[in-house]
Design a protein that fits this description.
Blueprint lengths: L3 E2 L4 E5 L2 H15 L3 E2 L2 E5 L2 H6 L3 H13 L1 E4 L7 H6 L9 H9 L2 E6 L16 E5 L9 E5 L3 E8 L5 E9 L3 E5 L4 H18 L2 E6 L7 H24 L3 E5 H10 L4 E5 L1 H15 L5 E6 L5 E5 L5 H8 L9 H18 L2 H19 L2 E3 H4 L8 E3 L1 H16 L1
Parallel strand pairs: 1-3, 2-4, 2-5, 5-16, 7-14, 12-13, 12-14, 17-18
Antiparallel strand pairs: 6-7, 6-15, 8-11, 9-10, 15-16
Helix pairs in contact: 1-14, 3-5, 6-7, 11-12, 12-14
Bound molecules: NADP nicotinamide-adenine-dinucleotide phosphate and magnesium ion.
NADP nicotinamide-adenine-dinucleotide phosphate binds next to helix 10.
Length: 403
Amino acid sequence: MDKIKMTTPLVEMDGDEMTRILWKMIKDELLHPFIDLKTEYYDLGLKHRDETDDQVTVDSALATKKYGVAVKCATITPNAARVEEYDLKAMYRSPNGTIRAILDGTVFRAPIVVKGIEPTVKTWKKPITIARHAYGDVYKATEMKIPGAGKAEIVYTDQEGNETRELIHDFEGPGIVQGMHNVEASIRAFAQSCFNYALDTKQDLWFSTKDTISKKYDHTFKDIFQDLYDSEYKDRFEEEGIEYFYTLIDDAVARVIRSEGGYIWACKNYDGDVMSDMIATAFGSLAMMTSVLVAPDGTTEYEAAHGTVQRHYYKYLNGEETSTNSVATIFAWTGALRKRGSLDGIDALTAFADKLEEATLETIESGTMTKDLALITTLKEVNPVNSEDFIKAVRERLESKLK
Ligand code: NAP
Ligand code: MG
């Protein structure tokens, strides 16, 4: 069989610890044998980030802007212990934070649904993708403890020095206040990413806030989404047969639980923080969550939602056998290859991505899976395997599919 040719490079961001080990196994076993893999390689491993004063992270994000598609391995976000462990020059920012700031994107998290790993919510048949707005609100709030009786106000001063005031509360005794903000440009970028991703994945888009209570703040979110939908997306949504649906957050929660899944749920920053953990847990396993960063201009970066699986890596370094789940990392690659294939019109590449995903899911459905899934599966016949044997089992299935 001839290897599949690529025309535009994929931006490849290598990472840390156990996921770095899986990364190489996936490339060696599941990609190189079948594809003339064309990537622009950036080593975001912590050692190399330190050697380049983190410039490599910035460069990888700029390359993503240039080429449009990236695939990223999980990386360490250094804390004090890591600074010591790796003898770092500085406590660098989270690479995901740096990349997101440069691409101005929204993160979409979706579970990989497979027979034998059943969601806690019995009606869920298809994945629910959470889109979380990643700027402002309570995450950039200013807070104050009010010591005793007195008036708290919000004051806006325009560039000419004119003041506008609103009373927050006339306190009779001690209390608390919080001032939070958002900016229209960020909300619009969020809305754009959501509409684009819905079109890209042909799924309905739900959006929810509490606009009945928050008549200016949350209502602005609702209005920006609706205006953008009416002016730029309505026709394309109708062509694709998908829907944009707005509802109150409490109504959304009730509908989500009763639903079959199969849509994107856009949430404000705090709602997205809470709901993404709820959805991930209820679908079964963090190791089966994918994560996609989508910029308003359509630039896309794929990765697994989990971290570098540090505990398994230390076992691996000790020469012990590991059973680390590579599925979300495999799906990061298939997502990126499919996107590259569709942008460049290379059908063989998109078809390969589909087959690799099928081979991975069928391997699990046949009972061969890593230990984390073996512990929660409803399948009766289970063959728990180590990290390497799982990938080899996927390769066997993939080969027979490609014949
Ligand atoms: P983690 O790597 O997600 O792992 C936490 C635990 O979850 C593991 O110890 C393991 O449980 C289980 N787990 C997660 N992924 C798994 C997989 N693929 N297969 C099997 N089990 C899996 O989180 P962490 O250990 O808290 O963080 C490690 C490093 O990752 C940190 O330095 C953090 O900064 C980084 N991180 C990076 C990203 C990213 O790059 N996107 C995201 C989150 C965290 P058991 O040990 O019980 O088997
Ligand atoms: Mg959280």
